[in-house]
Design brief:
Elements: E1 2-6, E2 17-25, E3 36-37, E4 44-47, E5 53-58, E6 61-66, E7 69-71, E8 78-80, E9 86-93, E10 113-115, H1 118-122, H2 129-138, H3 140-156, H4 162-170, H5 182-186, H6 190-201, H7 205-222, H8 231-237, H9 243-254, H10 258-264, H11 268-271
Antiparallel strand pairs: 1-2, 2-9, 3-8, 4-7, 4-9, 5-6, 5-8, 7-10
Helix pairs in contact: 2-3, 4-6
């Protein structure tokens, strides 16, 4: 199994894109065949060959298709079918970035997987997913340079309004600022921040803060063996009032209790690894 993750080199592209990532699964590769994608407040553009199948499920929700597609921000845990070999290249956008871009459907869109014609989206007649995936496999650095160039004309046509600018100012505060105090720091009413943030991201400030905390928690657990996990200590470290509160949080977020999660380890972070970003 091969994977990598890189940041955009172009500073303008980096305003909208957090990273590019690549995954390859071959015949005979070991690992969970049906990994789960944890909730994510960011959108991902998935580039793959036209005949490549994809499938995402959550409860009664199920979507299947072929080729490139959007994974829009989602509060649900999606189970994916990775039982067959595949090559996929992902573009992870910053939270709220899709709001400023000219895409269909108009943003924000939540909990949806939607097919996309990447050539039309990027307005590049010479674009080929197959050729880009070959570069991704053999020459990751060059692949990232190519994506930077492909994205520039599209991103330069973006439009930011007062809602997107206010949301961008609010995002860095979510990690260490009580939501109730953000209005004072941003010199506007709390209601104004909440309305703009929901309009841009499709999420409330509290939902986004909770999802960011979940990602940090899962990264922490990924670096530890099951025998090293002390749930009472983790509850304290991550600001939960007690261990039962943490148990309910994980059950609601990823559909598994701490004990079930440690036993299964079936999230993508555990199966493909929290590979370092270069």
């Amino acid at each position: 199994m091969r994977n990598w993750k890189h940041s955009p080199k172009n500073s303008y592209v980096a305003k909208y894109v957090e990273c590019y990532w690549f995954l390859e699964r071959k015949h005979g590769d070991h690992g969970h065949k049906y990994p789960k994608l944890n909730p994510d407040p960011a959108g991902h553009l998935i580039l793959t060959e036209a005949e490549q199948c994809y499938q995402y499920e959550h409860g009664m929700f199920s979507v299947q298709g072929n080729g490139s597609h959007w994974i829009f921000p989602h509060c649900q845990t999606f189970q994916m079918d990775h039982s067959q070999p595949f090559l996929i290249l992902g573009i992870k956008f910053h939270i709220g970035a899709l709001y400023s871009l000219n895409i269909t459907p108009k943003q924000p869109v939540m909990d949806q997987i939607i097919g996309v014609d990447a050539k039309t989206l990027l307005k590049s007649e010479g674009f080929s997913e197959t050729e880009l995936l070959v570069k991704a496999r053999r020459q990751p650095e060059i692949c990232c340079d190519i994506i930077d160039e492909l994205l520039m004309p599209w991103l330069q046509a973006s439009h930011q309004d007062r809602h997107s600018r206010l949301s961008q100012s609010a995002l860095p505060l979510l990690s260490d600022t009580p939501i109730s105090k953000m209005g004072v720091l941003l010199h506007c009413s709390q209601r104004t921040i909440e309305r703009s943030f929901l309009r841009v991201t499709g999420l409330t400030l509290k939902q986004c803060q909770s999802m960011n905390r979940l990602e940090t928690l899962l990264e922490y657990l990924h670096r530890r063996e099951a025998r090293e996990v002390d749930w009472a200590d983790i509850a304290y470290q991550f600001g939960f009032s007690d261990q039962p509160h943490l148990i309910r949080y994980l059950k609601n977020s990823i559909g598994a209790t701490p004990g079930e999660y440690v036993k299964q380890r079936d999230l993508t972070i555990d199966i493909y690894g929290n590979f370092e970003k270069n």
